[in-house]
Specification:
single chain; about 700 residues; mainly beta; five-stranded mixed β-sheet; four-stranded antiparallel β-sheet
């Protein structure tokens, strides 16, 4: 059995080559960043029997983040023929050891519904399961790739990956691929220049449906992407046809019936059924019949069709007055909902249902909380695979991190309050309880941290001031450096320790100013930039020659930000990079040698339908690095989360994962805020557009 397992692994690891932008990177340094809500997800995949919803079965192993599952039929798993028949064959996306992979778990569910834990990687041959990776980051030369809704078709895996750069700013990198597991041959099925999401393979395996932008591209949507549904041949991506206008998250009931969701003009997300027309073995869009199934008055989305029992589908719902999304069955004949998850775990979010081939099980993922051995696996520090040599990359369970000059400590914000900890995650302590955002260390005065205290995302006249904190003083001495509170924020100290650059709204617009580092603006103050726009998020280069910042000066008030740099004397203004028309590039931070800049941006568009994930203010933020002259862009993170506020430290840190210590906050992330809709604010069904009524 061992040799068989090793053979499976060797077959499942593919080789994939691609071009890499080559440019030197600084040696032995670290980039830390924040991801909104992500440290508290700790997802596992669960299932319920349709015939007995009183017992919830956890199918995955309680390690890291496991999500977007798919029940594969045994016929799709020829490489398991040497094992006794498992109860469940689960294909899913997992994030562990700093990378993203697609795993297969062949699980034997005992009569007591007990699932035994197993090893983190490789194949486990314990009596109750076999586990193996199918596709992972090592298949893409170390590039981190977000993968979504994987499906096995014979000996091929169909999935989404974001490893190929389309070469166009603000264009999504998401595309559908098929990997032949026994040979490692990989085929891109999405045409170049197109973004495809949420693939679903038809019951026969002949067709794949996707939510796609087509050629129009992303318009900056952060709720519903405005995708259409296309169908193409699973074999090679040919015969691609748009069959449904305005729809997402397709799911097949049979080879001519699709379920999907869309947001209607009456304000409600609803599930629809489409009957496709096939002529001479090909689909035609003009005669597609579409009908709305779920009524207004609640949100229903991410449908999963039942192949064996076409009388019902599984959907995620968000009902008025509820703070949580739940999984329900919907009887498409009687137009009746049947609750599944609310009765057994009412105070948890449940995501993206899927149904077993025999329609006996409904699967979904949710936050697990603590495991049976008391571990949370919800991380305060998490190592992430870095595509850049000699650069450590890790996620921190806080916002606006910054390294001390020697790299031994990190300051960060955990709303509310400012904290300092050792760079290995130990010794965390609060140094200010005030509501704050942004942190920066003084280069010369040991232990001095700057921050801005006051409300975030506020107007120019809001009461926000910059303070310095000596975190090494027993009494934590504080000094207020700005006066008047006209939204003074984002301080960054000069390398000689004499000055602090910051943004202020004191003129009625947010521009950059420089003040005395020790005594603040009362001792010395001069204006660096001036204009009817917002210059913000400034960072001083290590050699003192440049200040990088984000600005909407090319389109004031639009919400579109580009990166610029300027000399401290106000000369030499240069534009570094922008993220296409209407895009955002924010939070620049120089590398320790000053030759590169890390920042966050929507340069790579979105990587998944936002509604399929928890809430992110910006479900499109990824980390990037450019040379300090704006050339040679490199993408660091690939996911459907909001990565932001990077900082760059002076030495490479070997980061061990550090669990959160505050158990009271487990799973305390938000659902998509735009799902909280009141019936009093919605339009009547009669005012819904044609696409959201029965036709």
């Amino acid at each position: 059995m061992k040799s068989s397992c090793q053979k499976v692994l060797s077959c499942c690891f593919l080789l994939f080559s691609f071009s890499v932008i080559s440019h030197a990177t600084p040696e032995h340094s670290s980039i830390a960043f924040a991801t909104l809500g992500r440290p508290r997800y700790a997802f596992d995949i669960y299932s319920l029997r349709v015939s007995d919803t009183s017992k919830e079965i956890r199918l995955t192993d309680g390690n890291s983040i496991n999500f977007n599952g798919y029940f594969a039929s045994l016929s799709a798993l020829p490489f398991l023929k040497n094992y006794s028949l498992p109860s469940v064959n689960l294909v899913y996306v997992t994030e562990r050891n700093g990378s993203t992979s697609i795993y297969l778990d062949a699980v034997h569910i005992s009569p007591w519904l007990r699932v035994q834990r197993r090893s983190l990687l490789g194949v486990s041959t314990q009596f109750d399961r076999v586990q193996m990776p199918l596709v992972g980051d090592e298949n893409f030369n170390g590039q981190v790739s977000m993968k979504d809704r994987p499906t096995l078709v014979g000996q091929s895996l169909v999935y989404v990956s974001t490893h190929e750069n389309p070469g166009k700013p603000r264009a999504s990198w998401a595309a559908v691929y098929s990997t032949q597991l026994t040979t490692g041959s990989t085929l891109r099925m999405t045409p170049k220049g197109i973004a495809d999401f949420s693939p679903a393979v038809s019951p026969s395996g002949a067709w794949t449906a996707v939510a796609s932008y087509g050629e129009e591209g992303w318009h900056g949507d952060v709720q519903e992407l405005g995708t259409d549904i296309y169908v193409f041949s699973t074999l090679d991506g040919s015969n691609r046809v748009k069959v449904i206008e305005h729809g997402g998250w397709p799911s097949w009931a049979d080879d001519s019936t699709l379920y999907f969701h869309r947001k209607c003009d009456d304000g409600w997300w609803s599930v629809f059924r489409a009957v496709l027309t096939v002529e001479n073995g090909l689909f035609h869009s003009k005669s597609t019949v579409v009908e709305r199934l779920t009524p207004p008055g609640l949100h229903a989305f991410t449908p999963a069709a039942s192949v064996a029992n076409k009388n019902f589908i599984a959907v995620a719902t968000r009902r008025p007055g509820s703070e949580y999304r739940h999984i329900e069955l919907f009887d498409v004949v009687l137009s009746k909902f049947i609750e599944l998850t609310k009765t057994i775990s009412p105070n948890a979010h449940h995501f993206n249902p899927f149904i077993s081939p025999d329609s006996a099980l409904v699967g979904y993922h949710k936050c697990r909380g603590t495991t049976s051995d008391g571990q949370t696996n919800e991380l305060h520090l998490e190592s992430v695979n870095s595509p850049l040599p000699n650069i450590s990359l890790f996620r921190i369970g806080g916002s606006f991190p910054s390294f001390s000059p020697d790299g031994k400590r990190i300051a960060y914000v955990n709303f509310p309050g400012v904290y300092v900890m050792n760079s290995d995650g130990s010794g965390a302590r609060m140094v200010s309880s005030r509501s704050a955002f942004s942190t920066a260390w003084d280069w010369k005065r040991k232990g001095v941290v700057y921050t801005s205290v006051g409300p975030t995302f506020a107007s120019e006249t809001s009461k926000v001031d910059i303070i310095s904190i000596n975190v090494d003083d027993d009494d934590l001495s504080y000094k207020t450096l700005t006066t008047g509170g006209e939204n003074n924020a984002f301080p960054s100290a000069s390398p000689d320790g004499k000055w602090v650059v910051f943004r202020s709204g004191r003129s009625g617009h947010k521009n950059l100013y420089i003040m005395d580092a020790l005594d603040g603006e009362k001792a010395a103050l001069h204006r660096l930039t001036e204009g009817p726009w917002s210059d913000t998020m400034c960072n001083w280069s290590p050699d003192g020659d440049w200040i990088a910042f984000a600005s909407d000066r090319e389109n004031p008030g639009s919400g579109s930000f580009e990166l610029f740099k300027i000399h401290p004397n106000g000369t030499g203004l240069q534009k570094l990079i922008q993220s296409g028309s209407g895009g955002r590039t924010n939070h620049p931070w120089f590398s320790p040698d000053g030759r590169h800049i890390a920042f966050t941006s929507d340069y790579a568009g979105v990587s998944a339908e936002p509604i399929s994930n928890p809430h992110h203010y910006q479900p499109y933020g990824d980390l990037f690095v450019i040379k300090s002259d704006g050339s040679g862009i490199r993408r660091l993170t690939h996911n459907a989360y909001e990565d932001g506020t990077p900082t760059w430290g002076p030495k490479s840190s070997v980061v061990a994962n550090v669990e959160l210590s505050d158990s009271e906050s487990l799973c305390s992330f938000e659902d998509c805020h735009w799902l909280s809709i009141s019936t009093s604010t919605t339009k009547s069904l009669g005012s819904a557009n044609k696409q959201c009524a029965e036709i």
